[in-house]
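Give me the fold.
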Amino acid sequence: MKQNFTVTNLDSTFGATVTNIKLTEITEETAKNLYSLWLDRSLLIFPDQHLTNQEQVKFAENFGKLEFNLSPISNVRTDGTVRDPNDDDIVKSLKGNMEWHHDSTYMPIQAKGAVFTAHQVPSKEGQTGWADMTAAYEALDEDIKNKIDNLSAYHSYEYSQRERYGHKPQEESEFSGYGFDVDPKPLRPLVKVHPETGKKTLTIGRHAYKIPGLSDAEARELVKFLEDFSCQKPRTYHHSWSVGDAVIWDNRNLMHQARPWDLTEPRIMYHARLKGDPRSESGLNYK
C-alpha cells in the first residue's frame, strides 16, 4: 500500500498510531490509503492534530456519511462550569459510557465508526479503551462458538441508561434521550460478519439485555461472560489522551469505553459518528 505517512502498530491485536501527517491537508489518495489501513487495524490514532469542529467533520466524511455531524462528550456546561458529578443526567450518560459498548446498537441501524478528538483532558486518568471483538470471537473455543452462532440479543438504551442510571423523563432533563424512544428494540446477532473484511465478530456490550430462548438472567450472564473473555490483553488498548489527539475506530468490530476520572475536573471531547450501511447494520427486526 502506497502511503505518505508513518504507521506504528500498537502492542495489541489491532490499532496503529499514524504520524507524519496533517489531517487537514490529506489528498484523495491519502484518504483512500487511510481507509484501507483503518479496515486492517480498526483503530487509528493521530497525535497532535488540533482539529477544529469543522475540520473534524470534514475528515470524518472521508470514511462515509455521518449519523450525526458532531456531539460534545463533556462534563462541562456551555458557560464553562463543571457539571455536578452525581446528580446530572449528562454526567450519568458519561458514567454509562464507562461500560464496554458499541455505538448505536440500540438504534435501528448500528453506527459504522466514529472520529473522536480531545480538546481538554483531566490531569490524570480518563483514558478511552477499545476491545477487538473479531480477535475475541476467533479465540473462543468451538463449543462456545456453536452455542452463540445462532443467538441474537435485543439492545436498548432505555435499559442501559434509564433503568441502570436513573435518567429522568426527557421533559425533566437536559439530556436529549437520543435512542430512548426506539421501538421495537433492535435485535442483533451475537455473531455478525463484518461487511468489508468478511470476518466474524461479536456484537455485545452494555446495551444488550435480552436473548430470545434464554431467561433474562441467562442472557445477562452470557453477555457478561463474553465481555469478560473479550476485554483483556492482547485484545484491548487504552489510550491516554493529549489535547489535540484525533482517533477513528471501526464500531462494527470494536467495543469501547471511557475510563473513570475525577469528575470535578473538566474533560471535553468531540464525537463525529459514521452512519452504518442499512444492508449490514440494521437490526434483524428492521429489515
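Residues 6-276 form a domain with the Double-stranded beta-helix fold (CATH 3.60.130.10).
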